[in-house]
Amino acid sequence: MSEPFSGASASSSRTSSRMVADSEDISRALRRLAHQVVENVKDVSHLVIMGIPTRGVPIAERLAKNIGDIEKISIPVGSLDVTLFRDDLQMRPTKALEQTRLPAEGIDGKTVILVDDVLFSGRTIRAALDAINEYGRPAVVQLAVLVDRGHRELPIRADYVGKNLPTSLSEKVSVQISEIDSVDQVVIQSTIEQL
Fold it and tell me: When you count CB atoms within 10 A of the terminal residue's CB, does the N or C end of the chain come out lower?
């Protein structure tokens, strides 16, 4: 009978998760972002907030409500599907198109704030900028994200960040929003190799 090869080892992996923001942390971050927008945007009456599906849309709606509560006005909110504008379409699994919804007054001449849940490589935002050009010509485009995890592949930076979260490339940041996931939290998942 032969002995097992001594250099071989059986290894497996398991996923570890840790919550880095709860519901109150997310609410506090969105209130802070709303105040920053009000301070930085000269005229909020010309403001349009566009969420990037999926979780960017409810985050955009919450941000718009917070800004509206501060300024006592209604801020128009839309959604911007960027799927067909991505440069990695061939490398990703086929995904159903989301709805692009523009406010009735459009985006021409407006200050548009793009909203997404996580800023990572910057490729989604590059696609969003291309998509915006299909629908009009805003005066200004800014970016608000709930989480900036670093690791940019393109020269893109958020104007408004809820939480900077340094991560390794092997980790996954999962933003969960109650409108979609029934809970508000940010979780980091990492794979742990076991011998």
Answer: N
